[in-house]
Design a protein that fits this description.
Radius of gyration of chain B: 19 Å
Number of helices of chain A: 15
Helix content of chain B: 25-40%
Strand order of the largest sheet of chain A: 1-14-2-3
Structural class of chain B: alpha/beta
Helix content of chain A: 40-55%
Number of strands of chain B: 5
Distance between the termini of chain B: 59 Å
Number of domains of chain B: 2
Low-confidence stretches of chain A: 1-10, 416-426
Oligomer: heterodimer
Structural class of chain A: alpha+beta
Largest interface: A-B, 53 and 50 residues
Strand content of chain A: 15-25%
Number of helices of chain B: 13
Number of strands of chain A: 14
CATH architecture of the largest domain in chain B: 3-Layer(aba) Sandwich
CATH superfamily of the largest domain in chain B: NADH:ubiquinone oxidoreductase-like, 20kDa subunit
Largest sheet of chain A: 4 strands, mixed
């Protein structure tokens, strides 16, 4: 029998280069492979020998969509090693910057990357033709996220203000307060965002999934925390590499992560949401209730709704942070370099971003290890596609492609160290 | 008769996505911009594609694989105006730092055409392979400069891309000179304007995101810094950033790195 190959061409609206191959024998799915052929950029290698002060600016260049996450994870690592207590107001500024990144990235995902799938359109331009007011609100939300980042960091992509021990220059209270009117306007508009995500016709997928996120006693985890899972594990950042193992697979340039028990797992908004729901702002909890998605929630097609809830939460938190902010007397604290091994984690928009460094006595990096959220999610994406495969195979080619792409896009993959194609091939072997 | 809209292609090579994201980050101008062009290819934003040729191609990222070499040659043939955007496309980006590793140097010595033979081992600016009509510098590009550039080019006018030093912007921003007043190493005097002197305005030295300025004399400035107590290794690590494959920075690194 001839092999039937369906090749639907490039996948847009993700940051990553890969191909999805589904092999089937009749109605039985025999294999699912998500190939990533991003050109490797060797950041971990080129960090060797660089001074620790340079690291936050170097690692931010790994990703133009979540540079703050890279900066904060590296700062957490070095500041713990050097025993630095960062000023509380500086921490607040870093959180405002980080909430800005969440808002921008989630708005980008919801309206520009994911929404076109649900309405079977190629892009946000098509959405704008259908509902210009909606897209105007969407762009305003994304703009606010970027404005928050610029107010603290100078610019939204690769901000320049963060440094080990603090911040190069703390903004005045007035600079931040200038964003409050727009912030308040958008806080009042979150109902329309909820109505929009609720209106989308979402596929459904039941699954048993391991969820892993940070937990911070002080707040819904964002800039720091210990690592927890819905299987009951609780580990400090230094225990990450003992509990999560990276595997190389022959068809992908990106490493796959599994738990030490060999399970695939999911990081990102849905993991945070299930594990830290109690710490969400009441406005966000109310939105979750209205959307009828209160935890436990594991259907990956609800990721878009969870991102909307996290935007609502971030808007409330950032409003309170700006209200409480007082410009610190000292924007950074002096420190002495100490050699040693250090670990830093934070919650990038797409999930846990783990860094570890070996620092020598001259303050240079001897070894760097970085595990981005998308690498952790990759094997889980394959599992989701595997669960959906019977439906994918039954569907016509257009629908098969849409469904497969959505299953991947639920994770908002940021294989951003490369983009281009995701080719879908369904090979029917016998 | 209605004139067809210009066909815009946005292409990504080895990079972080940040420069093309700058287009989507132009929230106030985005819909107006997309109304003026036909989006022939912009994978980060749209699954719709049109066949080449392209009137305007924006290229992000450095060339670091054999496939990328073939792809950029093809896109050049298919494009009327080809523009490199950002430090990766114009000067290699941070991933080109591997060119300074022993492996990279060794291979340049061994292979007659190392760029083509072992492209995977090194990363290069777009202009090393094809003719480039304009270069927008920066890591990332400046969004305002990008928009102004697009508005100008789409009207058929010739864009202005100033390449004077960051110092000009820094003076206009009213900053005290970090080098003279504070002894802080700063690449501002040898770096192209474009960022609005952002880092000096934050009280930190420029680390060269926009690459070399016009008529730069890095030899002279670097030895001045060193004569004023800045360690050579510090100067070297500043120059060995996102623009290490620009002609001027590369030449200095080959001599002094």
């Amino acid at each position: 029998m001839a092999r039937v190959v369906v090749d639907t061409g490039p996948l847009a609206r993700v940051e990553g280069e890969g191909s999805l191959v589904i092999e089937a024998d009749g109605a039985n799915v025999t294999d699912v492979k998500l190939n990533i052929f991003e050109p490797p950029r060797f950041f971990e290698g080129l960090l060797r020998g660089r001074r620790v002060e340079e690291v936050p600016d170097i690692v931010s260049r790994i990703c133009g969509i979540c540079p703050v996450a890279y900066q904060v994870s590296s700062l957490n690592a070095f500041e713990e090693l050097f025993g630095i207590e960062v000023d509380e107001e500086v921490r607040r500024l870093r959180r405002i910057l980080y909430y800005g990144e969440w808002i921008e990235s989630h708005a980008l995902h919801i309206y520009m990357l994911a929404a076109p799938d649900f309405i079977r359109a190629p892009d946000v331009v098509a959405l704008a033709k259908k509902d210009p007011e909606l897209v105007k609100r969407a762009l305003a939300m994304k703009r606010l996220g970027n404005d928050l980042m610029s107010a603290v960091g100078g610019r939204e992509i690769h901000p320049v203000s963060l440094k080990i021990g603090g911040i190069f220059r703390a903004p005045s209270k007035e600079t931040l307060a200038a964003l409050t009117p727009e912030l308040n306007r958008l806080r009042k508009s979150v109902q329309s965002m909820a109505a929009f995500v609720s209106s989308l016709d979402k596929p459904k997928l039941k699954r048993d999934v391991t969820l892993v996120s940070l937990r911070d006693q002080a707040r819904y985890a964002i800039d720091r925390g210990e690592i927890v899972s819905n299987r009951g594990s609780r580990i400090p950042p230094s225990g990450y590499e003992d509990n999560f193992i990276e595997h190389q697979v022959d068809y992908s340039n990106a490493l796959h992560s599994r738990t030490k028990e060999g399970m695939t797992y999911m990081v990102g908004p849905m993991a945070r949401y299930n594990l830290n729901f109690a710490q969400l702002h009441s406005v966000a909890k109310a939105m979750a209730k209205d959307l009828d998605i209160e935890p436990p929630l594991t259907d990956p097609f609800q990721s878009i709704s969870v991102r909307a809830v996290e935007i609502a939460h971030s808007l409330e938190e950032v409003a309170a942070e700006i209200e409480q902010y007082t410009k610190p007397a000292h924007s950074s604290v002096p420190y002495k370099i100490k050699p040693g091994v250090c670990y830093g984690v934070s919650e990038a928009p797409r999930g846990i971003l783990y860094h570890s460094y070996v620092v020598n006595g001259r303050g240079q990096v001897e070894r760097a290890k970085i595990v981005p959220p998308t690498a952790q999610n990759q094997a889980r994406m394959e599992d989701d596609v595997r669960l959906l495969a019977p439906e994918i195979i039954r569907s016509d080619p257009t629908e098969a492609r849409r469904l497969s792409e959505m299953a991947v896009r639920n994770y908002d993959p940021c294989i951003s160290c490369a983009t281009h194609f995701l080719k879908l091939e369904i090979r029917n072997a016998s | 008769m209605m004139l067809a809209k210009p066909k815009l292609g946005v292409f990504k090579f080895s990079s972080c996505d940040g420069c093309q994201l700058s287009i989507l980050d132009a929230e106030r101008e985005l819909l107006a911009l997309l109304d003026k062009v036909d989006l022939a290819e912009f994978l980060e934003a749209s699954s719709a594609r049109m066949d080449p040729p392209y009137d305007l191609a924006l290229v992000e990222g450095s060339i670091s694989t054999q496939e990328e070499v073939e792809r950029i040659v093809r896109i050049r043939k298919e494009s009327k105006i080809l523009v490199s955007i950002g430090a990766c496309a114009t000067a290699g980006g941070l991933q080109a730092l591997r060119n300074w590793s022993k492996l990279g140097l060794l291979e340049s010595a061994v292979y007659p055409e190392p760029k083509v033979a072992r492209a995977l081992e090194m990363a290069f600016p777009v202009s090393d392979f094809v003719a480039v009509d304009f270069e927008l510098r920066g890591c990332p590009v400046n969004k305002a400069q990008l928009l102004q550039f697009l508005a100008t080019v789409l009207r058929g006018a010739k864009p202005r891309l100033p390449r004077n030093a960051v110092c000009f912007e820094c003076k206009r921003a009213g900053n005290a000179c970090l080098v003279v007043a504070g002894g802080t190493p700063c690449l501002g005097p040898v770096t192209s304007a474009g960022c609005g002197a952002m880092c000096p305005s934050y009280g930190r030295g420029c680390f060269g995101c926009f690459g070399p300025s016009n008529d730069v004399n890095l030899d002279s400035y670097a030895s001045w810094l060193e004569a004023h107590g800045v360690e050579h290794s510090l100067v070297e690590s500043l120059v060995k950033g996102a623009n290490s494959q620009s002609t001027e920075f590369r030449r200095w690194l080959e001599k002094h790195g």
